[in-house]
Design a protein that fits this description.
Strand order of the largest sheet: 2-1-4-8
Order of helices and strands: HHEEEEEEEEEE
Number of helices: 2
Distance between the termini: 63 Å
Structural class: alpha+beta
Bound molecules: copper (II) ion
CATH topology of the largest domain: Immunoglobulin-like
Length: about 160
């Protein structure tokens, strides 16, 4: 039997210290962790640095509506963590754009849309970080059409 008055006093201080500690923790979580986690989604390392990439060419003569092929390949199947970086290169002699049929945004990379035109010899690059299905075209040449299907890794 040893219930000295000092031990219950120490117990009270312990409780107060714990309450202070928890509220500092909650405050820290709300001030720093929460805004940061809301601003940018967590994206895995494999998706941020995929081992492979996909190249789409805007081939010569794409500016002609008579020509069947323009964005080559027309349909691309993108796998997150494998080849989710896509590069469009303009091999034609006319400026083109990569424009989604309807506004499309990736939560990490932002708006999918080439800023202005892609001049001959230049390219537009985009890192897809989430599943999506996007139909796109070239705005000065609406007969130029392509499709992107982004899926999760299949294993
Ligand atoms: Cu074009």
């Amino acid at each position: 039997m040893s219930s000295k008055p000092t031990s219950s006093h120490a117990y009270g201080i312990g409780i107060i210290a714990m309450i202070v500690g928890v509220s500092i923790g909650v405050g820290y979580y709300q001030m720093y962790y929460l805004p940061e986690s809301l601003a940018k989604p967590k994206v895995s390392e494999e998706i941020l640095n995929p081992p492979d990439k996909i190249e789409v060419k805007m081939i010569k003569g794409s500016d002609s509506p008579e020509q069947k092929d323009n964005f080559v390949p027309k349909l691309i199947n993108v796998q997150l963590g494998v080849d989710n970086r896509v590069i469009w290169t303009n091999d034609d002699g006319t400026p083109h754009t990569v424009t989604p049929d309807k506004p499309t945004e990736d939560s990490y990379s932002g708006e999918f849309d080439s800023p202005g035109v892609v001049k001959p010899g230049e390219h537009y690059e985009f890192l897809f970080t989430e599943a999506a299905e996007i139909d796109y075209h070239c705005s000065p040449h609406p007969w130029m059409k392509g499709k992107i299907v982004v899926t999760k890794q299949r294993f």
